[in-house]
Amino acid sequence: MFDSLNLEKELKLKKIHSKYILCGNDENSIKGAVEKIKNIALNKDFEELNYTEIDGANLTLPQLINACETLPFMSEKRMVLIYRASFLKDHGDKAEEGRFKEIKEYIKNIPQECVLIMYYIFDNPREKESLKVKGLNKLAHVIKFEKLKGKSLEKKVEELFAERKVDISKSELAIFCNLVDTNLDILENEVEKLCTYAWDRKITRTDIQLLVTQKNENDIFNLVDYISQKKPDMAIDILDELIFKGEMITGILRMIQRQFKLLLNIKIGATQGKSKEVLSKELKLHPYICEKMISQSKKFTLKSIRNAIEKCLDTEKMLKSTSTNAKTEMELLIITVTTLL
């Protein structure tokens, strides 16, 4: 089993395999890896004719065979993506167990001109790869997407700055790593943002504090995303983590309010036909963050976003005017907003 850094090194050398299984907590990083593999495997001009996506929840063996055994058109390879492949998780229902056995047998001999990728997302940050996936390690190239940390994180970030020929000291590097989310796509975007801003001079602490999107902002994004998925228990887990890290509850509430206000502006802007570039400029958001929020806004209606903002304001008044348990009120807010969707 490999990690995302090993995969990245291989892709930089344009090396790809015929079968991949990707798993982890961060679907954005996994989707980014899929896109990189696709760019190497397929001719851009004929991509639509040689690329198939199938929802893992509805996959059938005949469907997989048809997708994999269709000959590539004007290309050496074709690519098949099975997303949200829940049959790769342990303890599935009978249908998923049967689907897994059929697919496990079939992928032993898929055509050499086909690149097959299957991925599934962990249900929580503490989840490990399934026993099924471990058992497929000899049949496919298995990649686990874990958050970078410690020395491995610092080394990776140092490489990103070095690739762009921009200097950063050890102390500034440590500050950057402490602040930024460890998602590889976010790391690259934050490094690119700093390098563009600093141009040909050394990165300073002021640059980092001014420009870097901090971890807690991404936590709030995920918290709101779990609300959109009607998973209040997962949203409350993030709330608990933020409190454990020392965030004040009033500060968390303000960040949630800000997230919903941004979603409201993005939703309204999108209905007016505004592009990502225009919204990014108007709302002073990094294009990558803006793109993520545009996707998130699609999970809400205008009414549900306005209701969420109203409930946030009600909770703020409650926290300021009574001696109620603040954490309980925040949990009630999350549950209430989820039920309004």
TrEMBL record:
Gene3D superfamilies named among the record's database cross-references: 1.10.8.60, 1.20.272.10, P-loop containing nucleotide triphosphate hydrolases
Keywords from the UniProt entry: DNA replication, DNA-directed DNA polymerase, Nucleotidyltransferase, Transferase
Keyword Zinc: no
Any GO CC annotation of this UniProt entry: DNA polymerase III complex
Catalytic activity entry: DNA(n) + a 2'-deoxyribonucleoside 5'-triphosphate = DNA(n+1) + diphosphate
GO biological processes: DNA-templated DNA replication
Listed EC numbers: 2.7.7.7
DNA polymerase III delta N-terminal domain segment(s): 20-145
Domain of life: Bacteria
InterPro entries tied to this protein: DNA_pol3_clamp-load_cplx_C, DNA_pol3_delta-like_C, DNA_pol3_delta_N, DNA_polIII_delta, P-loop_NTPase
One Gene Ontology term of the molecular function aspect: DNA-directed DNA polymerase activity
Coiled-coil features, chain-numbered ranges: none
UniProt cross-references to Pfam families, sorted A to Z: DNA_pol3_delta, DNA_pol3_delta_C
Family designation: Belongs to the DNA polymerase HolA subunit family.
Full protein name: DNA polymerase III subunit delta
Domain DNA polymerase III delta subunit-like C-terminal: 217-336
Organism of this sequence: Clostridium grantii DSM 8605
